[in-house]
Amino acid sequence: MVGLKEELLKSIWHAFTALDLDRSGKVLSHNLCTVLNVPHDPVALEEHFRDDDEGPVSNQGYMPYLNKFILEKVQGNFDKVEFNRMCWTLCAKKNLSKSPLLISDEDAFKVWVIFNFLSEDKYPLIIVPEEIEYLLKKITEAMGAGWQQEQFDHYKIALNTSREGLSAWELIDLIGSGQFSKGMDRQTVSMAINEVFNELILDVLKQGYMLKKGHKRKNWMERWFVLKPNVISYYVSEDLKDKKGDIILDGNCCVEALPDRDGKKCLFLIKCLDKTFEISASDKKKKQEWIQAIQTTVNLLKAGSPPPHKEARQKRKELRQKLLAEQEELERQMKELQAANENKQKELETVRKQLEAAAARAAEEEKKRLQTQVELQDRFSLELEREKMVRQKMEEQVAQKSSELEQYLQRVRELEEMYKQLQEALEDEKQARQDEETVRKLQARLLEEESAKRAELEKWHLQQQQTIQMTEAEKQELENQRIIKEQALQVAMQQLKQLELERKEALEQYEEVKKKLEMAANNTKSWKDKVAHHEGLIRLIEPGSKNPHLITNWGPAAFTEAELEQRQKSWKGKKATSE
């Protein structure tokens, strides 16, 4: 009922604003009660519009009466076309343009009703450019012409620069001027307007001639069918004067295609709760279009959805409201940003003034600081001069200390060099001692070999004496053995001479090593004196003390007295064994 009330109010608003204020309420109320099938209450009307200051005849004063005594009593059992025509009659004469139009008054009436359907829900009523484009497209499609989008874009730009939309009378002038229907005759334009009017206002989803099979006589009759959101009405002809019946649609209805039979083609069946209707279309295309349209209507009834054109209008309105809300929100945010920007500017101005004041204070403080700095510089200059003198003295002391340190380092380097040379001398002495030990070992080996040869010679001499005491028979044999042994003795003598020579050579080598050792000892003694001369920084490493050596016929012995005693015992033991 809310949507119906809004639709009624738009037409009533046109009629009310077109009448004289002093009689608009009474005349309009009487006509409205008549066309809306509402009981008329003249007493309430006279009471509401009595001539005093408490009941002014105005838009505001009439609306309470209209809502309370008329609109709230509307049940929907009225002719919408008749209602709109009554309102049109009251307002058209005053507002319709006097210039000639390419459309008839009836077409202008239909455009006016379509305007009320598509206009915004605010007063004064206007139709926005988006809805104008939608209506012109529908009319152009109904005429079978091509839509000129570029032409409408130019018109839309010109319209947006001046106002938000068009009034009903301006819309009639626009369509009647033929600006968007050039090349079309009046009849084509009129038929297109009528088709759009039937769809948007009368909720006609589809219409056309088809054959219907009767329920009683079972004969086929041609009828004009009109499909609406909840009913299919069929008439004798398309002038809609002689209505033959209705097919009430609901969510339980269904439509089915039938095979051709009894000489009838393109058959389909509409099943309702109480009745079944057999219908024959003119061709297969019409049959499919009607089946699809009826099935779509039934599906909408099941879902409880409004007709497609009303649902599309509602979506367009919601989209515009959403865009408007977003635009208002954007404007609000822009205002907030602007206000915030202004506040920031004020804050920046305050900060700038504070910075200027701070800069002035800083300049004064800088001036004082510079003055203080000059005084400090003078004071620091005097202190710097004194510091330079002190530093110069310290540098002289440092230079003197550096010279002493350099001398000390030079002395240390000399001592290190002496230490290296001493190490080399010690290495030479160590090598000489190793050579001496080697010669001693060689001499001891030669002496042992000489002792062994002498023992062997003594043994042979004893054997020769024993052999002389033997018999003559044995003498010859012993003579032979003696000769052999003499030969062996000669060989041994030769070897002894050879050993003598080797011993002499070893003795010579020993003398050379001894000389080297004496030279190393002299060098060591010389370095020891040098070290003692240099304040005793390095203690010379000396070889240990030596025991007195035994002296042989050929020079110093290579063994000690204890070793000699041990060897004498060994010789005596061998001699006793041989005897």
CA radius of gyration: 73 Å
Q: What are the low-pLDDT stretches, counting only 5+ consecutive residues below 50?
A: 51-59, 537-542
- What does the largest sheet look like? 7 strands, antiparallel
Can you give the helix content as a percent range? 55-70%
Order of helices and strands: HHHHHHHHHHEEEEEEEHHHEEH
The assigned structural class equals alpha+beta
How many domains, as an integer?
A: 4
Read across the widest sheet, the strand sequence of neighbours is: 4-3-2-1-7-6-5
Oligomer: single chain
Distance between the termini: 166 Å
- Tertiary shape: elongated
Q: Give the integer mean of the pLDDT values.
A: 83
Count of helices? 14
Proportion of residues in β-strands: 5-15%
Number of strands: 9
Protein name: Switch-associated protein 70
Organism: Smithornis capensis
GO molecular function: DNA binding
Subunit structure: The SWAP complex consists of NPM1, NCL, PARP1 and SWAP70.
